[in-house]
């Protein structure tokens, strides 16, 4: 069942520059405090959805052109929402719950921790302070960051699809690729992400196979209120 669902998801999302990575809810819950647990049995099937560098041309620009006469508040969020809701329609006999990376609970906690989900699904390695043995930061707050073995930091985690009625007790967990494997590189990565994230150098901490186009870099480097002009809105 998991394989059939995965094939249908990949067929629908792949041409849009989106990827889906299978996981069991229990893998996610096992590494988090109860306050962040997802309220499903451990063997419930879930998919973490990533956007790759191709998403900008394959999904976002066509979406904006099609929706030009409608009210668009956040083009990327609305584009991803539109396509994941369409994917949900491909499973009329299944319940599909969707969580988006930008959604918050009433408590102001995120609905799911995107980077943790990507890590346990084997999609991208979540590098954190605990991955550095000789911590040079003292009392500074250091945030972690996911790195993809193909795209480096040139990708985003967009959502979580959960199939509450599908249990996959025998699904094998794939470890994420540890592509920033030396202590020096991990320190460099976390330094760049935490203190120089605007210049985007952390995204190229490894040799990447695909990165954002110059147009896409400009779009995401532009303040949100000015991005509409770049898309001709």
TrEMBL record:
GO molecular function annotation: cobalamin binding; cyanocobalamin reductase (cyanide-eliminating) (NADP+) activity; demethylase activity; FAD binding
Pfam families xref list: MMACHC
Biological process per Gene Ontology, one example term: cobalamin metabolic process
Primary localization class, coarse: cytoplasm
Known cofactor(s): FAD; FMN
Gene name for this UniProt entry: Mmachc
Keywords noted in UniProt: Cobalamin, Cobalt, Cytoplasm, FAD, Flavoprotein, FMN, NADP, Oxidoreductase
InterPro entries assigned: MMACHC (IPR032037)
Enzyme Commission number, as recorded: 1.16.1.6, 2.5.1.151
Coiled-coil region: none
Catalytic activity reported: apo-[alkylcobalamin reductase] + methylcob(III)alamin + glutathione = S-methyl glutathione + cob(I)alamin-[alkylcobalamin reductase] + H(+); 2 cob(II)alamin-[cyanocobalamin reductase] + 2 hydrogen cyanide + NADP(+) = 2 cyanocob(III)alamin + 2 apo-[cyanocobalamin reductase] + NADPH + H(+); apo-[alkylcobalamin reductase] + adenosylcob(III)alamin + glutathione = S-adenosylglutathione + cob(I)alamin-[alkylcobalamin reductase] + H(+); apo-[alkylcobalamin reductase] + an R-cob(III)alamin + glutathione = cob(I)alamin-[alkylcobalamin reductase] + an S-substituted glutathione + H(+)
Superkingdom of origin: Eukaryota
Subcellular location: Cytoplasm
Record family assignment: Belongs to the MMACHC family.
Identification of the protein by name: Cyanocobalamin reductase / alkylcobalamin dealkylase
GO CC, any one term: cytoplasm
């Amino acid at each position: 069942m998991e394989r059939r669902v995965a094939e249908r998801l990949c067929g629908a999302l792949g041409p849009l520059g989106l990827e889906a990575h299978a996981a069991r809810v229990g893998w996610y819950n096992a590494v988090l405090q109860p306050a962040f647990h997802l309220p499903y049995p451990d063997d419930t099937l879930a998919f973490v959805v990533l956007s790759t560098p191709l998403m900008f041309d394959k999904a976002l620009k066509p979406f904006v052109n099609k929706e030009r006469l409608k009210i668009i508040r956040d083009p990327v969020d609305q584009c991803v929402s539109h396509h994941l809701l369409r994917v949900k329609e491909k499973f009329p006999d299944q319940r599909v719950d969707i969580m988006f990376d930008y959604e918050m609970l009433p408590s102001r906690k995120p609905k799911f921790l995107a980077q943790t989900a990507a890590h346990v699904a084997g999609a991208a390695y979540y590098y954190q302070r605990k991955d550095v043995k000789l911590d040079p930061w003292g009392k500074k707050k250091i945030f972690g960051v996911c790195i993809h073995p193909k795209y480096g930091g040139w990708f985003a985690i967009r959502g979580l699809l959960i199939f509450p009625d599908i249990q996959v007790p025998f699904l094998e967990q794939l470890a994420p690729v540890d592509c920033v494997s030396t202590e020096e590189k991990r320190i460099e990565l976390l330094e760049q992400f935490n203190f120089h994230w605007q210049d985007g150098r952390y995204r190229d901490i490894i040799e990447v196979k695909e990165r954002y186009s110059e147009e896409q870099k400009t779009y995401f480097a532009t303040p949100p209120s000015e991005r509409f002009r770049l898309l001709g809105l």
